[in-house]
Structures are given as C-alpha cells and as structure tokens.
Amino acid sequence: MAGKNSGKNGAGRDAVASIIEDWARERPELDTSPLEVLARLHRTFLRYNGRLTSAIDRHGLAVAGFDVLTALRRAGAPYRLTAGQLADSGLVSSAGVTLRIDRLEKDGLIVRERDADDRRVVYSRLTDAGLAKVDEVFAEHLDNERRMLAGLSPAECRQLARLLSKLERSIEDAPDSDEE
Q: pTM value?
C-alpha cells in the first residue's frame, strides 16, 4: 500500500497524502478519494491498537480477556453473564469466549457458577480480584485514551464520534462487492 514516498513529508503532509500522490502519478484515472478517510482510519486504528495492547499487556492481560472483564463489569452486580451473553455483548463466538474464560479463571479473575434453577446454565462471574483488576485497568485505559485524544478539542471529539458512527452505518449498509 505504501509507496517509496511514504512517511511524514513536510509540514501538513502525511503518509496517506504521499500514497494518494503516488497513485495519482501511477494510475491517474482512479479516484483515490476513499483513501483520504479509510486509509487514515486504518492507520489510526493500528496506532491505537498498539497503544491499547501495550497498556493492557502491562497488567498481565490480553485485550480479549480485558473485553470479557469489562463486559462482566458493565453487567453490574453480581457481575456475571453466560458465555452466550458475553458473545452477544460484541465479543466473538461462544467458543472463543470459552477460551478467554478458561484463562481468566486460571488467573483467579473469574469463577464459573451454575444457575441454581437450571444447572445447564453456567455463568462467569468476576471474583473480588477480577473486580479490582478491571476497575484499575479500565481507569488507566480511559486515561490512555484521553491522552490519545488530547490533540482534539471536546467539540472535535463529539463531531468525530458522530461522523464515525455515521461511517460505521455506511459500511454496514454498503453491499458486498459480490452483491453488486
């Protein structure tokens, strides 16, 4: 994707501007305007994800495990959900959630409990250590995200949030290439 001129070049120039310039030279008939948004979004995500992963790793957690802990914490007391509920909360498949639960249980951050009325139902519940861990790590996570957004004003953050929500809907509503 990146050409020989990639990287930060001069005031106001960035790698995406260089990429677009390269494509304009090499394939001037192509409309590269989607790159203005989506290439920048992709590059931003990669930088964000690197910082997120690094911050979570420092606490001995994987991002996937952190997702499970935060879903349980958001559920409110008694901080428990089934694997299916965890999957529905935006995580991966129930099988993927089970692998995460196994690791968190081994680390003493959650326990599995059977439902008193229906023994087939198994909940994952935060332990006291899990609750303390997720509260500590999530507070640091928000501080980390605030630092990453420091270059934007509160109004710009609100505007960007609205635009990203609209972009997400646009992407969801767009037909796949094989549907056209």
A: 0.80
